[in-house]
Amino acid sequence: MPQIFKDFVMIKIAIIGASGYSGEELIKILLNHPHAEIKKLYGFSSAGLNISNVHKSLKGIIDLTVESFDENDLNEIDLVFIALPSGESMNIVPKIFNKGIKIIDLGGDFRLKNLNEFEKYYKHHHTAINLLEKSVYGLSEWNESNISKAKIVANPGCYPTSIQLALLPLLKNKIINENFISITSYSGTSGAGKSVSQSMIFSEVNESVKAYKISTHQHIPEIKQYLKFFSNSEPDFSFIPHLLPATRGIYTTISAKINSDYDIKVIDDVYENEYSEKPFVRLYKHDIPELKDVIHTNFCDISWNLDENKNLILISAIDNLIKGAAGQAVQNMNIMFGLNQITGLLKCTEKKW
Amino acid sequence: MPQIFKDFVMIKIAIIGASGYSGEELIKILLNHPHAEIKKLYGFSSAGLNISNVHKSLKGIIDLTVESFDENDLNEIDLVFIALPSGESMNIVPKIFNKGIKIIDLGGDFRLKNLNEFEKYYKHHHTAINLLEKSVYGLSEWNESNISKAKIVANPGCYPTSIQLALLPLLKNKIINENFISITSYSGTSGAGKSVSQSMIFSEVNESVKAYKISTHQHIPEIKQYLKFFSNSEPDFSFIPHLLPATRGIYTTISAKINSDYDIKVIDDVYENEYSEKPFVRLYKHDIPELKDVIHTNFCDISWNLDENKNLILISAIDNLIKGAAGQAVQNMNIMFGLNQITGLLKCTEKKW
Amino acid sequence: MPQIFKDFVMIKIAIIGASGYSGEELIKILLNHPHAEIKKLYGFSSAGLNISNVHKSLKGIIDLTVESFDENDLNEIDLVFIALPSGESMNIVPKIFNKGIKIIDLGGDFRLKNLNEFEKYYKHHHTAINLLEKSVYGLSEWNESNISKAKIVANPGCYPTSIQLALLPLLKNKIINENFISITSYSGTSGAGKSVSQSMIFSEVNESVKAYKISTHQHIPEIKQYLKFFSNSEPDFSFIPHLLPATRGIYTTISAKINSDYDIKVIDDVYENEYSEKPFVRLYKHDIPELKDVIHTNFCDISWNLDENKNLILISAIDNLIKGAAGQAVQNMNIMFGLNQITGLLKCTEKKW
Amino acid sequence: MPQIFKDFVMIKIAIIGASGYSGEELIKILLNHPHAEIKKLYGFSSAGLNISNVHKSLKGIIDLTVESFDENDLNEIDLVFIALPSGESMNIVPKIFNKGIKIIDLGGDFRLKNLNEFEKYYKHHHTAINLLEKSVYGLSEWNESNISKAKIVANPGCYPTSIQLALLPLLKNKIINENFISITSYSGTSGAGKSVSQSMIFSEVNESVKAYKISTHQHIPEIKQYLKFFSNSEPDFSFIPHLLPATRGIYTTISAKINSDYDIKVIDDVYENEYSEKPFVRLYKHDIPELKDVIHTNFCDISWNLDENKNLILISAIDNLIKGAAGQAVQNMNIMFGLNQITGLLKCTEKKW
Question: How far is residue C77's CA from residue B61's CA, in Å, rounded to a whole number?
């Protein structure tokens, strides 16, 4: 555990999976964090390289060699971030957990409590079942109390973050009809990571759009499980993810019926009550957010509108690599270590945070 | 009327509004059309300029001066295409109609039969009411017989084309629940034309997305009116248009409930029956179309999938400037003048067209 | 040989390498060509697939199965286009040549006459040396007479096309100083083909630029060889290719000193004399071309300007897949078969072609 | 003047022209600066609006109303940043200067000492001639001593920053031939600001490139003047700026002849000697920088290569809004107020800064 003085903590950090986009973003955020110190970077194919040769953007900023993971190196480490493809984290987490070191896993291995769902959607056999129940879902705005006590945090998926932050206040307050909710999301390409496939080369993505993984996306059971957990609802929803010709960001559009002829002010109040004390949710009310305004921030921008037929239209926008990955991970770190949530993530003139 | 010989027509054409993107596309298509001859180009701010200076892409291809419109010039003209901002066409159409010249209007002035709807959504007072009933809606695949006899064709909007072609077969066959259909569309920027506003400059659109005109878009009443006209249905739908960081194309995603526990093969058959004889509708069935594959074509690509909850997910993709504007206009011209629909629009090895 | 009547030729065509971007473009152009008939499509990994599943854009247009190449299939073929990665064509060409079938090779295997240069830049040992001298360089505007008699045409590289068309008139007329010419080119990503590498994924290319292969690009010896061949000059030039965040096109900017205090009109005349009878070179004179205006065309747009210090600035723009590959290949086919050069490539109202 | 204690400064700041892209970037940087406090934001058309409505990205971060400029409001201000279109700053600067307040002008009004050049390139009559000689050019790496004593800093243009940082070490050391240097730059669209014109809408810029202002760009005399000032050289150069289909960044490619048959190591040493103590210049040596790696940073990445003909190829990359505008302005503020140059601009683990 880090030494905590009244006004000073310095958290010693290891990152496993430093060579991906989420790893790069984590490093950038942590370098600006006054209470974090990056001690170890681990990678596979990048082991042996200086991290500033893996991510040239870090040249002149950080001078640290990526190493092959060895759990015996972690003696001075307070917290490990894991940013690996699904199926890899579950083989590493037990070794770290047994040392009493805190873990934030940015991947999907510890999000689903239901093993059948895990195997169906992730196509892996789970190898660390006993740690599943110990993991805490890191949707910061909705699970702060549990996160503050967690030893393992399963950081949410990017789509589920953008969807749940928009839907939960309404489901919790029984505002919308659970019989049918339509969710359409567009994601920047960095969500697919640095993995190489013909469908991700520039010539194929640019000036195009495509939907993918209709009804088979691994974020579907995650959304289901935590909508139930946080709002005790089990709505029937469709979710259609799309690839956007842009590098970063998720833009989610949700249509739903409302349960009664509510005035829009009722909905205004529901969101206001839920989020007025949350620094990273910006309520646009009936204005419409633009994706570019959340890029490179940890914000989730949310709007709501009623159309003529009293269909409710929700929009939410996040940066998939920040609020959808590395930023929310650091927000969770702040919560776990008793720091102000915004530390290292937001410098603002707002007095209230 | 053009002189029609058994195997030869040469349609003499004027284009009003030649300097916009739809005008440019019309010119390009018509130059490749074996039975069309562009005789006159009209414009406002561009009057007096050579069209190849207005659209540099036409340099070396066509050498014609844009003129100020004068209805007395139209003596040898068989067909006038109008590609003007809404509210302008209705002042010009009567002058042309009275001369017995056929008209295809790419704008919105003659699409809505209901004047209240027109004024509410277009914010114009209609000045050619008596011609409204004479205009025929140019959704080529659904209105061919009427188009073939029309004197004025109101060419459909880009969004309505992509939405109606996907929805109509299902609504006509009572496959989907009309209580709630969710429609999300993403459009390339050329849909906004060449008009200049800060929100359309590259720095604002690039690497971003935004929804706009939720529940106020002028294509909503058009969709309503013609879903009823072609399928006798009045579904409750939400429609959320978005601006895509790409120049061309519309990608529409639709979610709906089905009326019964239909097997997907029922839906396969509905589409097959409707479109197997339509050269410009490509049925992807359960594969997912990519926007890039319709760009620069007159095709509409359509797919359908049922997710686990028996929510039906429809995708349709068109080029907004071609099937959503100039291409469908030429398809309608072909129908009006007794030509094969694909003339000038599609060279293919398929024997059946 | 095809049967040639006074006014009708139908050239029977095979394409080897139909599954790449140049292959796709060739197919699209040839489908619109009144004297071409695609008989055979050959591929490696795509063998056995319908070409409309390889290129979804061709769905509904052409229905032909890609086959594994077998030279015994070519009996009825008049012309073979080859669009393969460098080093592959030289193993196939001799088998076709021996059958007396004409060949247009879009790759680099038959462009360089100097074997040392070939091995140095292409890193292959040449296996068809005896055919090198028979191959004719297909820079259509400069080698028409030789092309018309050729049995093998080596279609030029994309960069060399854009560079030579701009430079040759000035070098031939000794207008510019050969001691130092600076050439900077930006290419769309389709120039790299469909090959998959991390550096070509959207997230790496988008919102970025990079120069590459400084002084090692395989187009350097091609430029050298043919500047000498066509203009008898051996200038010292630097060539720096860059990757542009766009799918198509090459934009070349050239700076050079002029040999004397020429008036700009002298230069105007040089270009006018050289290209006034060439349908695919558009002279912008002192106006500056935009890349978008040549995309999807076979044009090369060229401008020239003198700055205050009498430095000459040349700009040339082409579509890398059309004038830089498939379009020029078809232009060469037209020349080889005695057709008008513009056939299938340009429908225009210009009377003079 | 701010109260300066041994270890604490809090600089009170006003920004004139807060509603443009440079203004937005300045605000973001200063909010992260530990010794800066934004007290006043001034604008014209945006006066009366909250800055977070002008730049939605600032929502939840800063809550300050944009005001109409009034020099009588500046009593507590230590430093004014001006980010206005050319020709506007010179009317405001005298009023501020007379109050003894320090000024950093991001525009071009105080960069050129030669009035004829100013009027020729900027097309304005200068109205504050007496302050021209007092202004200090803010190329931080080359003018630190003068900047530290300056009352008015003329912050460099974006192109000149990227060009001079690459060229000056070589010119100062007489490495390259001054008879002809070819400079080609590509700039992101944010360099054109938020001003609205048809040529800047997304549909015109996307998937395109164009050169512009060949030999007439207002940065030409700036480059000339300061190459002479810093390296006592007067090279003959061509400069061709281009518009890149990307929001941010400048990528500059320079070709030149070297004066002698230097080994590349000589050039390595020249750069190393010049910049090893400069935190914001990253030397890539013979590796090639990618634009994306400097975006959102104050770095200038530089590489050099000799091609086979001993032509020297320089590449430099900056973020036009940061090192090319707001970032260098803050770097200059740090220098003027005796702070470490990197304060608020770079958090790094390098010990030496």
Answer: 33
